[in-house]
Design goal:
Chain lengths: 146, 146, 146, 146
């Protein structure tokens, strides 16, 4: 009887590589970011807070990564559907308030499956997304799912 | 002196039947759902997470069912009143954030009384509602309260 | 570059099989149990509450399973170390109180790795452990890690 | 009029150095640890989870570091006073359960003042303490407060 499923996730080495890439992009943009990487089921693998980064963004970065894996989507994609009148209005108050519905959380994909996520918070959403994308690109260049 | 009231609720056998019906509808729609059934007082009776279903939807499915019994309504019916300017704006942040204000939670009725609920989460709200309805129909075909 | 790790987890089919086995043992013992199965990273896959089972044990069953995967141990093995004077006294108030330090949570092992867990609550700890073990045996007969 | 105070804290570079030192000690001991470093006000600066480390220890490592700065003490020193009959019995249930009362959290001192802390969890308390000490020694060799 088939009793177990094989799944793929990321490890600490990969998480460190992604955080390094994201931090370099943050420095280029002269921003101070909190950067988090989580496993395919949302547990924190690695985290860094750049000196002077916003304190509230510690939680937000971690929760953006959690959101990206737990809904298998970029958090930026949740903004529209959760607006007043949107089909998922109210989503951000579920899951003990851990779901972040603006940009900066990006799932890491491999063969069409989410294997982890990166979350970034500490500046404008535009900067957050760009820094998270720089981290995600270090995993899967150009956003290609290989 | 009459000191106790008789109430009706559902049991595990019923919950399993409803979940099976909902899961078949989910498979037909090629979706991967989290499906929860709760008692008339909102306690979890049975739950199933289809392989690959969104992790955030575990809580959302359970809380949709909780919302349906605890407000004696379909959760889809809460969307309008909880909009900004609506009479129940802010409802979703009460009860430790457990009230879900979009579709997918449906109360199970018998003789005009709520005896339990089913909650489904894992796809579009439209799919969530249809899968929850398939479960509810297994309890009360056609939505008729018998 | 090696970027992903392969891990094994259990799916819904396995979870249902284990819950069925546990419930049969519960019936043999004329107990009414809450039975939960979680993934290798602690997310709920399936749950059943037998009719009349203790309400508090819903959370306890789920959290026993969470504890078994998150500390990679049988919860019964935590009882001694968390007693007053024990090396882990106070453990049960960490993790938002989700760690259960008495018997009834058993990890599911494959090739030396935890791939999920079962948690049972609803009777004496002795019964809880026996029912959880019946579920675990359905995964790995005789407790052998195959 | 003097209106502000100067305080000392640690930054990301220091946190990374301490985590590296702790991780090397963890590898020497063939353990898999969660390692956290927090600022003088208890906010997370950096965190790493070694592959395969206990999931429950993510929170515990972070909270050990939080405890060490927030009570300005090694967490191992809290074990005795929090026993039944002890002067601080019940301490671990305050602060939303974030205070950990067993070893593995060590404050980082400079000129008699706490400037941060390291927290380690993932093995026996003895190993946790030794790995945390290896991290703290990278900040202040031999435990000397310089």
């Amino acid at each position: 009887m088939k009793q177990v499923n094989t799944v793929e996730t990321i490890g600490l080495d990969t998480a460190r590589t992604l955080i390094d890439a994201a931090r370099r992009e943050a420095e280029t943009r002269e921003t101070r970011m909190n950067i988090a990487v989580v496993s395919h089921e949302g547990h924190l693998i690695a985290f860094e807070k750049m000196d002077g980064a916003w304190l509230a963004s510690i939680d937000i970065a971690i929760d953006k990564a959690f959101t990206a894996v737990s809904l298998q989507t970029e958090t930026a994609g949740l903004a529209e559907a959760t607006q007043p009148g949107g089909s998922l209005y109210g989503l951000n108050t579920t899951n003990d308030g851990r779901l972040v519905v603006f940009g900066g959380g990006i799932p890491l994909m491999r063969d069409g499956t989410v294997v982890g996520a990166i979350g970034v918070s500490g500046s404008s959403v535009e900067n957050d997304v760009a820094v998270a994308q720089a981290g995600a690109d270090a995993f899967s260049p150009g956003g290609r799912d290989r």
